[in-house]
Amino acid sequence: MVQDAHEAQQTITICSDSVGETAETVVRATIRQFNGHNVKMRRIGHIKHEDEIREIMEEVHREGGFVAYTLVQPELREMMKEEAIRLGVRAIDIMGPMMQAYIDTFDGAPSRKPGLMHELDDAYFRRVEAIEFAVKCDDGRDTTSMMKADIVLIGVSRTSKTPLSIFLAHKGYKVANFPLVPEVKLPKELFEFPGSRIVALTMNAEKLFKIRIERLKTLGLPFGSQYATMNRINEELEHAISIAKRLRCPVIDVTDKAIEETAGLIIEFLQA
User: Fold this and answer.
1) At the N or C end, where does the chain have fewer CB atoms within 10 A?
2) Does this UniProt record's set of keywords contain ATP-binding (predicted)?
3) Which residues are annotated as a binding site?
């Protein structure tokens, strides 16, 4: 049976003369807006020569899709534009228009050095330290280190505590997270930590039920598990809200929210 053209997987090729993380972030955000389940990304970094661009664009021309690129070297950007026109391949310049706007408005001159965003500066080492901290303090593993955190996330299972912790760590925040289970006693450190820097995560019960059912499938566990029953989920959510009230901390409903959106709200709470 021939696969429907609308269902065939499409490719977005990301090109950079550095690592390509900036372009990938933009592409990922775009894909989420379209529920792009059949779209995959291919990232090609550290491009140095014009011949590499010719080869990449020829391949995209044969296989389909389009290109998103961050090239700070003007000759590489120009080659990308020429090849896009020659082959009829759509190519999106992520950084070029922004750099040109800066030049036109502020009369500045770019350094033309790839990878400046990822140089080993103090901010880089803060991110590394924050990521190590998030891993160490994930899921209540090290409550004694909780007092060193910038943020503490609490919530029932499957409310995105771990991915949020890692995402915020990449922003340089030290994040600890603790699961809320009615039968598990809360650590004393949680009540010693400032409530303004604790964030409770909650979710619509039906949505959480679906997520937990999928989790059981992944783990190969029977569907009759108490973990994925509406009664248990409602009990846990009510318990979590009661804990948030005791701690006097903000509550965020993460239902249908992207990690980036929730992280933005958390940062706003911290900066308020």
Assistant:
1) N
2) no
3) 155-162
